[in-house]
Amino acid sequence: MSGFRPGDLFLADCPARLAVELIADKWTVVVLAGLSKGPVRHGELIELIGGISRKMLTQTLRRLEAHGLVRRHAYAEVPPRVEYELTPLGATLIEPIHTLTEWARANGDAVLDALDAGPEPVAPSG
Known about the structure:
The protein is mainly α. It has helices at residues 15-23, 28-34, 42-49, 54-66, 88-91, 94-117; strands spanning 40-41, 70-75, 81-86.
């Protein structure tokens, strides 16, 4: 028996699972990190992040905005100017993202070595 009960942390109906699924998206952590130093325009984020399409960035920003992590501010100017920034809730993720980044720097080579080594052979049962 796993010791988990319905409603426990990370089970389907748990808010913690929703949060983990949100930040587990390929681009979420990178976009949040890109916004960590203050308001940024869409094009600036594209350059800062690299490798993300405009469409994917827009989808990611909309999702983060819907979840209360990012605020979009459209200025009434010609040409139009839009900036994105972290909300106070979004800012609470920057320290955990920094910790994860440091872990990746410290352990990235070991992860790559494990991938290169391939799977461990499974001992026959019986």
